[in-house]
Amino acid sequence: MSESRISLDLRSVCSCVASTLFEYYTPRIVHIKSKKVGFINRFLQLVILSYIIGYVIVYKKGYQEFDTCQSAITTKLKGVVFSNLSHLSDIGVRTWDVADYVIPPQEIGATFVMTNVIPTLNQTQSTCPEDPTIDGSFCIDDSSCPQGKILDKGNGPFTGKCVNSANEKSHVCEIYGWCLVEDDSRYKNMTDPVLFGSHNFTMFIKNNIEFPKFGVRRRNLPDVATNESTAFINNCTYNATDPQAKYCPFFRLDTIVQGAGYPYSAVAVEGGVIEVVINWDCNLDFSVDDCLPEYSFKRLDRGDYSISRGFNFRYADYYAVKENDTFKQYRNLYKATGIIFVINVQGKAGKFSIIPLLLNFGSGLALLALTTVICDLIVLYVLKAKKYYREHKYLLVESQESFQEFRYVSHRRNHRQSLTV
Ligand SMILES: Nc1ncnc2c1ncn2[C@@H]1O[C@H](COP(=O)(O)OP(=O)(O)OP(=O)(O)O)[C@@H](O)[C@H]1O
């Protein structure tokens, strides 16, 4: 490559860099007198203003500051149920009250209510046949029951003997543990759960909430005992369709379960988990008395599984009996099925404040700049006359020095021409 060529390239690169570095863009106001473009511009402004005022400020309450609630919940159940299990268990006839079917008596944010039970009474530490429904419990002779072996789902270690099962239909290994072991085969054909009457039980949900930012405290029952409020509390039961009773804090269990979309009997047989949602949505620009709870119900475990549906667990109560001058310990074992009611409180309160109003309005107004961007795109790239508008939108201006140089050159040229003439 020749030297002159290299110096030419270098010069053109330098002039290109200089022209890119040393130039300046300034916005220019172009007044377009077009009905079409004018309409698009106003329409976009209207849409953005309606969004700011209608949605952000009015609908989303952009003029309020908000606080979420802090909450405390306690529950109390009332109701009794009578059962007759004489043909199935030693438990015979029995009246079950709240201390029997609410296990444990108090939980944080939840309550378990027993709806069905398989009792195994008077168990004590001794030897007895293993449950024949457990894998590995069958035996032919003593050699099939190695002493000390414990089955995965068994009730105790083998004693080393092969004995008759409790129903005397087979041979099973003998164990040492809480005897006699649970036998639920007798309950298989039961149609109704033992505590089916629990659908009539009532649950009192006491809920206190606070919005600390606004210093507002509320609860889901009247604050002051007047004749009217006392009569209301003594007689009401929650009913979502009644304008008064929908604020009553006493809920029948079947109202809750049906409110979650399930028949009580189905959930009572298998057990389940039902959520009670208490929602406080309060507008503190109005009277604080209008800040009231709304209740809704939902089943948290699905009822359509084909394996291990519902929910159950075992618990026992213990007692001692004096036998031959010593006390022997016994227990009653219960396999309890029931419904866990989980209570969740959610709440938001809003109150007018100038700061969020100005913030929302300001950030909304900034959105108006979008109008210019969209209109420019339409005018310069979409409309038929886009070329015409582009010519008026962009203007290339040379620097003043080159402008004066240009004037000087043309002046000399004119002068020379006049002399020639
Ligand atoms: N689950 C419930 N169903 C219906 N009423 C209830 C229930 N729980 C409580 N109540 C009634 O609501 C009122 C307030 O209950 P609270 O527990 O504050 O008082 P209490 O005198 O300790 O209640 P009680 O001794 O009757 O259980 C009482 O009249 C009480 O009987």
From TrEMBL:
Keywords: ATP-binding, Disulfide bond, Ion channel, Ion transport, Ligand-gated ion channel, Membrane, Nucleotide-binding, Transmembrane, Transmembrane helix, Transport. Pfam families: P2X_receptor. ATP binds at residues 76-78, 202, 312-314, 335. GO terms for cellular component: endomembrane system; plasma membrane; postsynapse. The chain crosses the membrane at residues 39-59, 357-383. Glycans are attached at residue 200. The keyword Nucleotide-binding applies. The keyword Nucleotide-binding applies. Disulfide bonds join 128-179, 139-162, 145-173, 236-248, 282-291. Its main location: membrane. GO terms for biological process: calcium ion transmembrane transport; response to ATP. PANTHER family: P2X PURINOCEPTOR (PTHR10125), P2X RECEPTOR E (PTHR10125:SF31). Belongs to the P2X receptor family. This is P2X purinoceptor 4-like isoform X3.
